[in-house]
Write a structure and sequence with these properties.
Layout: H1 16-21, H2 31-37, H3 41-49, H4 65-70, H5 75-87, H6 103-110, H7 113-121, H8 144-152, H9 169-176, H10 181-189, H11 205-211, H12 215-230, H13 234-257, E1 261-266, E2 271-276, H14 279-305
Antiparallel strand pairs: 1-2
Helix pairs in contact: 2-3, 5-7, 6-7, 8-10, 9-10, 10-12, 13-14
Region (Disordered): 1-30
Pfam families: Ank_2
Keywords: ANK repeat, Repeat
């Protein structure tokens, strides 16, 4: 053994005091983090048994022993180290100081279902958000299989709506744009609430998608609505009727503010009368007719679904 090195990993020797603190002399990082980074499971166990702090932070505040273990590229060693830390009652929901992310965020980003299960069984929170408001589900959005698995197994509430800063997960996905349309479809398929209103804007996801001209997201939302209507879902049919009447009233108010105008121009020798219909009025009238048809169709669907036609 090289003088000054530990018996297992070759890391610098640690005094009993350093072990208790989880640090190594004047080193920048706690010794326990250095052992994890070196993938030395025996040294990790030795340090923990000697009283090292398993909930310490890295010097820059961007890591903890549990998060460092999850970031290990070797999945077998990763799982062994996570299992050891959980056995010794590591704080599974400990937040990083600067981002607010937890081990659950990292495990989902790593797409390691075995580690995710370990964290959940140890009390890991699947609804926690980072300081920027990003939900845990956001970290699985590029893997729809994982997202579906989390939702199907009730590991994540697709409708984390309550008092959270950015509303539901659907609101967050809509804000990201059309690239996240598939994530919205997956969340809807597993019970996300389409008609919940954001408490800041009092708008639904559909309202915001229309406002932001999210073409792909609107296609997914309409597909979901048609599917529920086809099943005879009473709540969806009723909400669509209500939404159609809201649009009708808005257009009716808009129409009343832009009446048809007649302009008369008189000269000394000739009197010319010109009738002008503004483009705004014409467009409104056309849209109103379309909306009336839509409302009638929606009501017909509602009545047919309930045996009234």
């Amino acid at each position: 053994m090289v003088q000054g090195q530990g018996p297992r990993s070759g890391l610098p020797m640690t005094s009993q005091t350093d072990v208790e603190k989880g640090t190594q002399g004047d080193a920048e990082e706690p010794q326990i983090l250095r052992a994890i980074e070196a993938k030395d499971v025996r040294e990790l166990t030795y340090l923990i048994e000697g009283g090292a702090d398993i909930n310490c932070y890295s010097k820059d505040g961007f890591s903890t022993p549990l998060i460092k273990a999850i970031e290990c590229e070797d999945y077998e060693i990763r799982r062994r180290m996570v299992k050891i830390l959980i056995k010794w009652k590591v704080k599974v929901n400990q937040r990083l100081r600067k981002s607010g992310f937890t081990a659950m965020h990292k495990a989902i980003a790593r797409r390691d279902r075995e580690v995710i299960k370990m964290l959940i069984n140890a009390g890991g929170d699947t609804t926690i958000r980072g300081f920027n408001g990003s939900p845990v589900l956001m970290w699985s959005v590029n893997d729809h299989t994982l997202l579906g698995w989390l939702l199907e197994n009730n590991h994540c509430d697709a409708d984390t709506r309550a008092e959270q800063m950015n509303g539901t997960v659907l609101f967050y996905y809509e804000e990201q744009g059309d690239d996240w349309a598939d994530a919205i479809e997956t969340a809807l398929a597993h019970g996300a609430h389409l008609y919940h209103r954001d408490y800041l804007t009092n708008k639904t996801v559909y309202d915001l998608a229309e406002e932001h001209k999210r073409k792909d997201i609107l296609i997914k939302l309409n597909k979901h609505i048609f599917k529920l209507v086809d099943r005879g879902d009473f709540d969806t049919i009723w909400m669509e009727i209500h939404r159609s009447f809201d649009r009708w009233n808005k257009l009716k108010n808009q129409f009343s503010l832009h009446p048809r105008t007649t302009t008369t121009t008189t000269t000394t020798n000739t009197t010319t009368t010109t009738t002008t219909t503004t483009t705004t009025t014409t467009t409104t009238a056309t849209t109103t007719t379309t909306t009336t048809t839509t409302t009638t169709t929606t009501i017909h669907i509602f009545l047919h679904a309930h045996g009234h036609t």
